[in-house]
Automatic annotation (TrEMBL):
This is Uncharacterized protein. Residues 13-87 form the Tyrosine specific protein phosphatases domain. GO terms for biological process: lymphangiogenesis. Gene3D superfamilies: Protein tyrosine phosphatase superfamily.
């Protein structure tokens, strides 16, 4: 599990800012980003699942964490390995909604 909600949010902003600064202005913003931890499943899964769910919220789409995690695990087994990692994803989403004043 990442060190905390603030740190993850700060990291998200830095990654987006950096990737967007490297783009040609004629191309779209928020290009794909490579995410990988030591094994490429637990923490990587947390970051990918969190990003996907936040993107759903930003685009007013359905947020179905269990279904998305199942889909991710079809592509790479063991994505999001522990209960604490799974809970952390929900905590990030709740914090995102609070910061966005949606709840």
């Amino acid at each position: 599990v990442p060190y905390g909600l603030r740190l993850l949010r700060h990291h998200r902003v830095k990654v987006r800012r950096h990737t967007n600064s490297m783009l040609d202005t004629s191309k779209s913003l928020n290009p794909p980003v490579v995410v990988h931890c030591s094994a490429g499943v637990g923490r990587t899964g947390v970051v990918i699942l969190t990003e996907l769910m936040i993107s759903c919220l930003e685009h007013n789409e359905r947020v179905e964490v269990p279904m998305m995690l199942s889909h991710l695990r079809q592509q790479r087994m063991l994505m999001v390995q522990t209960i604490s990692q799974y809970k952390f994803v929900y905590q990030v989403l709740i914090q995102f909604l609070k910061n966005s004043r949606l709840i």
